[in-house]
Design goal:
This protein has 10 helices and 7 strands. With about 350 residues, it is an alpha+beta fold. Among the domains are: about 90 residues, no CATH class; about 150 residues, Histidine kinase-like ATPase, C-terminal domain (Heat Shock Protein 90). Strands 1, 2, 3, 4, 5, 6 and 7 form a 7-stranded mixed beta sheet that branches.
Length: about 350
């Protein structure tokens, strides 16, 4: 159904009024002669414009008064009739309001969808935190109850159960510390301590630190090329060690036996791209969009067996974004994964 604009409605009113005037004048003309004809003709023209402008004025005022509350609701502000007229001058008021309401409705729909998504994420997050903490808590409870029920006097289990309880406590501490790190990064409380350093040496240090873990999983740690010259970047060294360590450890834990983890560096203008590739089990395509979410695990049973908190990749993402850089992943299930992130080059040569 076509919506009539105020100008068109005023035009129709003026036409009807003029035709009615001409009809009445025609009857009078038949009685009074030629002078009345000219009087009626020019009177009809004057009447048309008079009725048109009066009708447009009153219809416009009526519509403005009706749409003012709509605009106040849409824009969440108090707007005067003068301002509203100024905004709509020369425009088709009905069409303009229709478009504004349509845009407002779409925005509200998107906001509702985002709120629903956030609510879903909040529920999943709370459920994940509860589940991750519940397991070590129940383990600790079981070990302590066993010791209290007489196991404390049994030398074959007392030390063993205390050591297992300590492992569960350490797991809880790791989860809480990782959550605290993410929260501080998100809120901006954690300030980055930027400095220039050689990232090749940093990766060497991580390789040395994870050498025993790599040997245990039969994974070879290697560079993609011979980097004899230093590659200097400007970043928070402590946090970048955390990033590289997380990615290397993941590549080892989810690698295939006799596989390889390869770290490469690429010059891309003012930045250095770091690439950490493995020949592991890979990531399914459906899991890739969620891989950086907190506690998200592609293989829950295997992930927990590996002892991770499920927060490592989320921390990686937050640290890199805190540097105003990007991190991404490419993977083919069963063949391996490749994580890349960028850093600014060093400020000084």
């Amino acid at each position: 159904m076509k919506v009539l604009s105020p100008k068109r409605v005023s035009f129709y009113i003026a036409i009807v009024s003029t035709l009615f005037f001409i009809l009445v004048s025609a009857l009078f003309f038949s009685l009074s002669g030629i002078f009345s004809f000219f009087l009626a003709f020019f009177g009809a023209i004057g009447l048309f414009f008079l009725v048109y402008f009066i009708a447009e004025y009153f219809i416009g005022n009526f519509i403005f008064e009706k749409i003012k509350p709509i605009y106040r609701t849409i824009h969440s502000t108090q707007i005067s009739g003068k301002e509203l007229r100024k905004n709509l001058v020369g425009k088709d008021i009905i069409t303009e309001v229709k478009n504004e309401v349509g845009d407002w409705a779409r925005n509200k729909t998107e906001e509702i969808d985002q709120l629903r998504q956030l609510e879903k994420y909040r529920r999943e997050f709370l459920g994940n935190v509860s589940h991750e903490l519940k397991t070590p808590i129940f383990n600790i409870q079981g070990y302590i109850l066993t010791l209290l029920d007489g196991g404390l006097e049994d030398p074959s289990i007392n030390r063993l159960y205390l050591e297992r309880a300590e492992k569960s406590i350490n797991r809880m501490i790791n989860i809480v510390e990782d959550l605290e790190s993410i929260s501080r990064l998100e809120s901006g409380e954690l300030k980055l301590e930027m400095e220039d350093f050689n990232i090749v040496n940093l990766v060497y240090d991580v390789f040395e630190f994870q050498e025993m873990l790599a040997r245990k999983h039969s994974i070879k740690l290697a560079f993609g090329a011979s980097y004899e010259k230093p590659i200097r970047v400007n970043a928070d060294k402590k946090r970048i060690i955390e990033v590289v360590n997380n990615l290397v450890v993941n590549s080892i834990k989810y690698g295939k036996r006799n596989g390889t983890t390869t770290v490469s560096f690429f010059d891309i203008g003012d930045q250095v791209m770091v690439e950490i590739a493995d020949t592991g089990i890979g990531i399914a395509e459906k899991d890739i969009p969620r891989i950086f979410e907190r506690f998200y695990r592609t293989d829950k049973s295997r992930s927990r067996d590996q002892g991770g908190t499920g927060l490592g990749l989320s921390i990686v993402k937050h640290i890199i974004e805190a540097h105003e850089q990007t991190v991404s992943v490419r993977s083919r299930y069963g063949e391996g994964s490749m994580f890349t992130f960028t850093l600014n080059k060093a400020l000084t040569k």
